[in-house]
Design goal:
Structural class: alpha+beta
Number of helices: 2
Largest sheet: 7 strands, antiparallel
Strand content: 35-45%
Oligomer: single chain
Radius of gyration: 19 Å
Strand order of the largest sheet: 1-2-3-4-5-6-7
Order of helices and strands: HEEEEEEEH
Length: 171
């Protein structure tokens, strides 16, 4: 009986995780579609790009480009317009190795998805990739390829820091 209840519980969790991942994938597709549309229209473009370029000892020239895609709504309580990011991309290099990251946020600011990819130090491994899906701050699914990647916690924390930086940059 205990084995049957455990199997039912695992199946229910798997079903809930699949439903959450499917919903996040739909939101991701909508965000990418919105970005593509906004990039064609100067009137509706809501994006901010931050370029960082510096020299790092033993690594050399390093470039980082962070792009925020955001929406702006009028907040009646604050009697002001409030901008909130919904999609963040990051490209950067470490020496000759290149990396790319994407973070998807819900309208309330919750991080729900991260995609990380980059070039491994090991030529046999080639590229690595990680996809993390969260619901209410809890990891519900991950897909990993390769051996060099940010942990789920590190990716979530990075998204939170980028979201906080947006607030400072916009005000």
């Amino acid at each position: 009986m205990l084995l049957l209840l455990t199997a039912i519980g695992v199946q229910a969790q798997t079903g809930a995780a699949k439903k959450a991942v499917d919903s996040i994938r739909e939101q991701y597709a909508e965000a990418k579609q919105d970005i593509a549309y906004n990039n064609k229209s100067e009137e509706t473009r809501n994006q901010m790009t931050v370029n960082i370029s510096h020299m790092v000892a033993a690594i050399g020239h390093q470039e980082k480009v962070v792009t925020y895609y955001f929406f702006t709504d009028f907040d009646e309580d604050a009697d002001d317009y409030i901008s909130k990011p919904y999609f963040i991309t990051v490209t950067y290099n470490v020496a000759a190795r290149k990396f790319y990251e994407e973070y998807l946020l819900k309208g309330n600011g919750d991080v729900i998805f991260a995609y990380l990819s980059g070039e491994s130090n090991d030529p046999v491994v080639g590229r690595f990739e990680a996809r993390y899906y969260w619901e209410n701050g809890q990891l519900v699914h991950q897909q990993l390829k390769g051996d060099e990647m940010e942990s789920e916690t590190g990716a979530f924390d990075q998204a939170q820091r980028l979201k906080e930086a947006f607030v400072y940059l916009m005000h």
